[in-house]
Amino acid sequence: MKKWISYFFICAYLLSFPEARQILKFPTLVEHFISHKLRDHQTTFASFLKMHYLEDHGIDADYSQDMKLPFKVQDSSHYSLNIIVPPSNSETLAERSHMIDGVKHNFVYAESFFPSISLKIWQPPKV
Q1: Report for 42-51, 59-68, 104-113: range of highest mean pLDDT
Q2: Residue in 111, 113, 106, 115 with CA at minimum distance from that of residue 124
Q3: Cα torsion through 5, 11, 16, 17, rounded to 10
């Protein structure tokens, strides 16, 4: 189960980049090449790529299919997720702002500056 979850997260990460999403359009490239090959049997894959990516052959009957090919159109979609967690205790913020305003030091560090539980845990060893 862990293997499949890791595969899911790797795929989700890689597909978040627009260039990596173009890889999903490769079946369209193959189908479009086959349709060109059925119309003209002398069409090679190199000539197909040259015609669609290097030459400007204008707007033709299959222009909508041409624009669905990979790396033909720049995909610049962007998604962002912002999570804002409100503080659980508003009194703590008021106490901190009062302490900062009330204590004036020329020196940056003061023991009463950060009144938190983490200071009780992370202290230098006492001699």
Answers
A1: 42-51
A2: 111
A3: 150
